Amino acid sequence: MHNIIEVLDNIYWVGVNDRRINRFENMFEVPNGVSYNAFVIKDEKNVLMDSVEGAFTRQYLENVETALDGEELDYIIVSHMEPDHCRNIDFILKEYPNCKFVGNSKTHKFFEQFYNDNYKDRYVEIKDGEKLNIGKRNLKFVFAPMVHWPEVFMTYETTEGLFFSADAFGAFNAIAGNIEADKVIHKGDWLEQARRYYINIVGKQGKMVQNLFKKVEGLDINAILPLHGPVYKDADSINFILEKYGHWAGFTPEEKGVVIVYSSMYGGTEQASDILANFLAQEGVEDIVLYDVSDWDYSYPIADCHRFSHQVFAPINYNAGLYYKMDAFLRELVGTGYKNRTVSFLNNWSWGGRSLEISKEILEPAKLNYIGEDVKINSAVKEPNVEELRELAKVIAEDYKNTEI
Predict the structure, then answer these.
(1) Tell me: domain 5-250, CATH 3.60.15.10, correct?
(2) Cβ count near 304 (within 10 Å)
(3) Which of 15, 45, 76, 379 satisfies CB 3.0 to 4.6 Å to 134 for a cystine?
(4) pLDDT tens digits, residue range 108-131?
């Protein structure tokens, strides 16, 4: 049975929801699933924008057939060849023998890498800035390499200002009935999931996203239709997500706040982190988040490290080196392009090791602003450590108060 939504005049969502997936890209927890968006544009020529994950072939084909309502499909435009968007291209081409496969040279190359070249005679290769007239509507192709794969391009419908944005502006969470962004973006955990999606998947490519913004600057954008999550079709929602992307792509904090990320085997470092959080609160810091690096999917603390202005990292020694999970977390954090933040340290070194030194070596490419004296704990928190934590809290709180966002 079909499940389609007319999101704009003669534009139908024919995507699917995946609520059974545990980890997106087999890495990031998605407790509320994810949507794979695809759209049919009906005009003198009918166009299918993108495909979906392979587990949903039947649903996808039924949705496309229903949206077409007996008409032919003329083009499938594939903006991104990651397998969650390309696994059903060949099924579409087989079902609709007159359909042309629109993409750039890299699009078709990836298709052949993943699948085959059986449909080579139906390729339509496009160039950056080229247009395709489909009747009342005109589609202009905007290449966006490394946002976040090299073949990515976006499609701008010039007559109504509709922006089919590939993975940009996407979000985790399956669609629960309401596909319009204004119905969901200020509710529940939507913003957290949009941030976590961008930072962990696209985040490293902030410069490329900024380049994209320059290319579309001046375009009249009245709707954004991404490959995951809700559709933005009102001015407030569009401005809201563009403002967030300005922070995320520019690696500037959204809010003032302190994220404390600690590793703790027997509770000593956790206690020190709690004491520091209490002192920060007494100094007037309102937004404080603590993460045990062993308990959390890294995508959550990574997203909050990008969100907030200040971080405290609390590494511990393990076999005279850095606790493995903290090591992995810091490397993944740096891999997302993390920078422009103010950072402090507390460290539990017990019988020796290089955990603090290794942590700073890993973070060195991020060019961070370090403040306060490193607090060093020997196995368990002692009274002198409490006073050191108090002083560190004062230094962080003073800098926090003077920080402008």
Answers:
(1) yes
(2) 23
(3) 45
(4) 999 999 999 999 999 999 999 999
pLDDT of residue 350: 85
- For range 225-248, the mean pLDDT: 96
The residues of the chain that CATH labels 3.40.50.360 are 258-400
* % of the chain at pLDDT higher than 70: 100
Q: Report the DSSP beta bridge partners of residue 180.
A: 231
Residues in the chain: 405
d(CA 50, CA 37): 8
State the amino acid at position 22 in one-letter form: N
Q: How far apart are CA 150 and CA 163, in angstroms?
A: 19
Q: Are 163 and 220 in contact (CB under 8 A)?
A: no
Q: CA angle 319-28-3, nearest 5°?
A: 165
Per the listing, tokens 């977390």 go with 329
DSSP result, 30-66: -TT-EEE--EEE-SSS-EEE----GGGHHHHHHHHHH
Best CA proximity match to 344, nearest among 388, 375, 298: 375
Helix, strand, or coil here: 8?
strand
Euclidean distance between CA atoms 18 and 227, whole angstroms = 13
Domain 258-400 classified CATH 3.40.605.10? no
Say what the pLDDT of residue 2 is.
77
